[in-house]
Amino acid sequence: MIQPLQYISQAPKTGTHIDAIKQVLEAGGKWIQLRIKNQAEAEILPFAKAAQALCESYGAKLIINDYPHLAKAVNSYGVHLGLQDMPVLEARKIIGKHQIIGGTANTFEHIRQRVAEGADYIGLGPFRFTRTKENLSPIVGLEGYQKLMEKVRKAGISIPIIAIGGIEAADIPAILETGIYGIAISAALTNQTQTAAVLEEISSKFSIHSI
Predict the structure, then answer these.
(1) Residue 36 annotated in ligand binding
(2) CB-CB contact of 26 with 189 (8 Å)
(3) What are the residue boundaries of the structural domains of the chain, listed by start?
(4) Is the separation of the CB atoms in 146 and 178 below 8 Å?
(5) What is the pLDDT of residues 95-130, one digit of tens each?
(6) Is 84 exposed, middle or buried (0-12, 13-18, 19+ CB in 10 A)?
(7) Number of C-alpha atoms within 13 angstroms, CB side, residue 48?
(8) Residue 175 in contact with residue 127, Cβ under 8 Å?
(9) According to the annotation, is 123 in a ligand binding site?
């Protein structure tokens, strides 16, 4: 099952991606994406192994960003591919059928592409400018989500779509109103001294929306 709230890792001001992931898991996070950029696969492998072990101990699911071979090596729940990464079909040949594949989209054409490729979910964004990504695609924004999700409904597309990119707790209700399936959070959960309280506040936005 695709969780509606995802944490995308980033190294905190002091510590590593693993420190940040452990903090979110201790706070109750259940879906983690390990996202380490600009390092070789061999350098990321120890982080992937540690993140997988942590997620298993907390009953959470791990997605590896960019690297299908690493996802297969550590038997993570799946892999997430950017628009400039390996095609979904090629990644599927590496990881097989039991691991899921997420794919980034920025436009409706990308959404249709991901559906045609057989992705299991889509990360649609960025919602706003974020410093966690290089070569950022055009900003989607709330109005963009409204227009894109209207096209998704008219096309009868039912794949889970996750909003991503600079999203904060206060943004969540309006984004969910567009019909978006879930939200990915990174900076809003990193470098927090009260991670559990922040995660609870974020999670409450989903509860309010479902009433």
Answers:
(1) yes
(2) no
(3) 5-208
(4) yes
(5) 999 999 999 999 999 999 999 999 999 999 999 977
(6) exposed
(7) 27
(8) yes
(9) no
Instruction: Tell me if 147 is assigned to a ligand binding site.
Output: no
pTM: 0.93
131 labeled binding residue:
yes
Asked whether residue 128 is marked as a ligand-binding residue, the answer is no
112 annotated ligand binder: no
The position carrying tokens 């097989």 is 96
Q: Is 45 annotated as a binding residue?
A: no
With a CB cutoff of 8 Å and minimum separation 6, the contacts of 116 are none
Q: What token pair was written down for 114?
A: 């991901």
Query: What is the DSSP track for 48-71?
Result: HHHHHHHHHHTT-EEEEES-HHHH
What is the rounded average pLDDT for all residues in the chain? 93
Tell me if 122 sits within 8 A of 161, measured CB to CB: yes
Residues 9, 37 contacting (CB under 8 angstroms): no
Hey, which CATH number is domain 5-208, 3.60.10.10, 3.10.150.10, 3.20.20.70, 1.20.1260.10? 3.20.20.70
Binding residue per annotation — 19? no
| Cα–Cα dist 157/152, whole Å | 5
| Annotated binding-site residue? 37 | yes
Q: Is the pLDDT of residue 131 over 70?
A: no
Cβ atoms of 206 and 188 within 8 Å: the answer is no
72 in a labelled binding site: no
CA angle 109-68-8, nearest 5°? Answer: 70
At residue 147, the pLDDT reads 97
